Amino acid sequence: MTQSQEEPLVGDDARAFIGKVTSEAEGIVVKKEFQRWAAAVKDRNPLYFDADFALAHGYRDVIAPPLYVQYVTLGVADLDQLRPDGIPGGTGSGDIPLPRCPRRMAGGDDMTFYEPIYDGDVIRAVRTVTDIHEKKGRSGAFVLVTSTTVYTRQDGTVVAENNASMIARP
Q1: Percent of the chain scoring above 90 in pLDDT
Q2: Could you tell me which of 149, 143, 142, 151 has the C-alpha nearest to residue 164?
Q3: Rounded mean pLDDT of the chain?
Q4: Which of 87, 67, 68, 69 is nearest to 77 (CA)?
Q5: Cβ(108)–Cβ(150) under 8 Å?
Q6: I want to staple 72 with a disulfide (CB 3.0 to 4.6 A). Which of 9, 18, 64, 123 is the partner?
Q7: What are the two backbone dihedrals, phi and then psi, of residue 75, each rounded to the nearest 5 degrees?
Q8: Which residues are CB-neighbours of 86 under 8 A, at least 6 positions away?
Q9: Distance (Å, rounded) from C-alpha 134 to C-alpha 117?
Q10: CA distance 90 to 104
């Protein structure tokens, strides 16, 4: 077969995922956990540890580091539950049927933060696939899958949004 006659990397079963919710999860923000996370990434911002400092800067209490919002809804995965790329199975875009492209890797994230999150907030994450298309790069053809995850607080307030891409290669 010539290049123009090759079977496409993206089939109808994969295209059917566009516009679909691929994962939903919920978790509770816990101060001790986000403070441990901040310390582990060496971010000792007093907004995360000192209530008086946070109050003086317009917050009602210490706040979680913004990037922590992604971890609130994650469960715990055993090593044998990880795919070869290190991502737990069943997390969304990695489960899209792309049989000709078994190698998966993160392609990037673009996070937008709208509101702080506090101890006790219940965060809901909903990921929707926004696009799937084949592309050609210097090293050949690949599939780019994009998705949006919206994080909302228990009162319905959107606190953050993540536009992410995943690359699948033959």
Answers
A1: 75
A2: 149
A3: 90
A4: 87
A5: no
A6: 123
A7: -90, -165
A8: none
A9: 37
A10: 14
- Looking at per-residue pLDDT, the higher value among 92 and 23 belongs to 23
Query: What's the rounded Cα separation, in Å, for the pair 117 and 68?
Result: 9
pLDDT digits (tens, 9 = 90+) for 41-54: 999 999 999 999 99
Distance CA 91, CA 83 (A): 11
Residue 5 confidence (pLDDT) above 60: no
Alpha helices in 6-73 (DSSP H): 12-15, 31-40, 51-56, 69-72
Beta carbons of 65 and 38 less than 8 angstroms apart: yes
146 pLDDT above the threshold of 70: yes
The pLDDT-based confidence of 2 (bands split at 50, 70, 90) is: very low
Closest CA to 149 of 73, 41, 88, 96: 73
By C-alpha distance, which of 147, 132, 138 is closest to 101?
Answer: 132
Asked if residues 73 and 109 have their Cβ atoms less than 8 Å apart, the reply is no
Q: If DSSP states are collapsed to H, E and C, what string results for 96-165?
A: CCCCCCCEEEEEEEEEEECCCCCCCCEEEEEEEEEEEEEEEECCEEEEEEEEEEEEEECCCCEEEEEEEE
